[in-house]
Amino acid sequence: MERDGQLSDFEVVITQLTLEADGVVSVRLERVDGQPLPPWQPGAHVDLALPVGITRQYSLIESPADLSSYRIAVLQQPNSRGGSEYVHVFLRPGQRVRVGAPRNHFALEPADAYRFIGGGIGITPLLSMARAADERDADWRLHYGGRSLRSMAYRRELRAAYGDKVELWPQDLRGPLPLERLLPRPEGDGRTLVYCCGPEPLIEAVRATAAANGWAEEDVRFERFAPTVHEHGPDRPFEVEARRSGKTVAIEEDESLLDGLLRAGIGVSSSCRSGVCGACETRVIEGEVEHRDDILSNAQREAGESMMVCVSRARGDRLVLDV
Amino acid sequence: MSELLHVAPAARPQRPARPSFKRLDLDGIRAVVGLPHETTEAKIVPTIGETARRFIAHSPFMTLATCDRDGRADCSPRGDGPGFVKVLDERTIALPDRTGNNLVQSFQNILQNPAVGTLFFVPGLRETLRVNGDGYVTDDAELLSRFTADGRRAKLALVIEVEEVYLHCGKALIRSGMWDPRWQSLADDMTRGIGVFSLMEIEKGAPHGTSSEIDDWIEDAYRREL
Questions:
Q1: N or C: which end of chain A has fewer CB within 10 A?
Q2: Can you list the alpha helix ranges (DSSP code H) found in A243-308?
C-alpha cells in the first residue's frame, strides 16, 4: 500500500468478529491513534494488510455517517491462498492490522432509478448503496442471490429494513436469478443504473443479458474482487516516458510496467497487482494501451486516458505517462 | 600383531585421524541428564491441533531434515511469507518449492527414504514447533495454485504426512539470543565484507571470477530468482 514511497495506510485494531452467515465473518475495525477514520461513499473499498503480509481489498459495509469504525465482511474460500483463511481461522479481537484509505470505483451516481444485483459476498458494496438510495427516496430494488438462505449474510436485516424492495433468491429454493426478467429492455425517459457485484459467472451473465436487452454499457456497473483471465498476446518489451519524473524506462518483457517504473525509482501506488483495485491507475499522455485490468469500461479503454500499470502494457512500442 | 605393524604403507597420503572421544550409550547419557518428566513425553501428539496450526500459519521459516537409504542425513532451510506452509488437514501439511539450486538434495533423499523432520520458527517467538512424518513431492496443479504469491508460482510442492507434532522449549533460542538485534552484526564479522560464496571459492583456490564478480552474480541471482 505505497503511494510515492510513503505509506498512506494506518493502523486499526480488530474490535469484533461476527459470524454473519455460513462462511461469512464480518470484522469491525477501529483506529488506534485517535484520529478519525477517513470518510467514504457507498461502494468504497479499502486495502487490509493482514498480519502475515497478505493484502486484500474489502468493501466497506454499514454507514458512511458512522466514522467511529469500519466494518468489512469476508467469505471463507476453501482453496484460499491464505487471506480468507487467516480472517476466519486466526484473526482475533485485539490484533492490529493496517488499512488503506478508501477507494471507490463503484460510486452511486445520480439516476432516476437503481437496480442492485448481488451474488454471495458481492452483497457487501451494495448494502451501503441500498441505504443511500433509500435515503434519497430513489426508485430502487435489490436482488440478492446466493447458494442457500443460510449462506446469505444480512438477508434478514435487508428484508427488515426495506421489505419488498429487497428480493432474496436462494438458489436451492428458487433457482438462479431470473436476469431476463430483472433486466428488461429500458423504456421511458428516466435513466436506470444497474450495480452488480458477485462471482464472475453472475457478472458475465448480467453483462450479457443487459447488452442483449439494449442497456447502455455505462449504465451497468460492476465491482470485482478477483481478476478475470484476459486473453492477450505475448508480453513484449516497450519504452515508457515518465514525463513528470523526467525519466524514460525500458520495460522488459518479463516485468510489469509497474515493476519497471518502481525499479527506476518512480513512485507509483499499487496494491492488488492484479488489475482489480485501481490503486495504480495512471494518466496516459500518449500511446496506445493494451488494457488487461477489470476496472475500466470499454468506453474508458477506448478513450485511453488512463491505465492500470500493474497489469496493462503498451500496444505499440512507447507510452508517455503522467507520473 | 607385530606383522600388522610392519605392513608396508601404500603410496596413498594418510589423512590425520579425526579427534575421537569416549562414546556414551543411552545408560551413560541418562546417568548424566536423568529421565524426562512424564508430561514431556505426552506432549508428542500425532495431529496438528489449533495451537500448532496457528504456529505454522505465522511461521515464515523452517528447517527440513531428510536422509537417504543409507541413513545419511541432510538439512536445509525453507522460507517464504508467514504461513507459506499450508495445513491441509490435521495430519497433512504442504510446502511450496520455488526456484532453488536444483541440487534437490532433500527431494532425492525423500525418494529414497520418505522420513522427514521439520522445525518451524516464528520471528520473536522463543519456542519452536517440531513436525515429523513422511514426505513426497507432487506437481498437483490445484495444490500449487494455493501457493501463488506476488505472481510467483510454485513449481513443485512437498506434502508431508504428519506423524508427530510437538513444541520445543525456548531455551536454545533464548540462550542464542536469536531474535536479539545485538547479534545482527555477527554477519559482518563472519564475512568481513566479502560474500560467503566468494569466501568459499577463494579458499578452494580456483575462483570462477573475482570475488566482486562472484558477489554480483549471487546478488543478481537472489534478485531474479526469488
A1: N
A2: 257-263, 298-303
DSSP-assigned letters across all residues of A109-171 = PP-SEEEEEEEGGGHHHHHHHHHHHHHTT-EEEEEEEESSGGG-TTHHHHHHHHGGGEEEEEH
Q: Are A22 and A113 in contact (CB under 8 A)?
A: no
> Which residue is it, cell 525499479?
A263
Residues with Cβ < 8 Å from B23, sequence gap 6 or more? none
* Greater pLDDT, A27 or A189: A27
* Contact state of A52 with B58 under an 8 Å Cβ cutoff: yes
Question: In chain A, which residue's Cα lies nearest the Cα of B142?
Answer: A79
**Can you tell me the distance from the alpha carbon of A160 to that of A20, in angstroms, rounded to the nearest whole number?**
16
Tell me the chain A residues in contact with residue B147 when contact means C-beta distances shorter than 8 Å: 81
CA distance B82 to chain A (A): 5
Cα dihedral sign for A59, A61, A67, A69?
negative
* Residue ranges with strand state E in chain B: 61-67, 73-79, 86-89, 92-97, 115-121, 128-138, 156-168
Q: Quick one: pLDDT band at residue A5, thresholds 50, 70, 90? A: very low
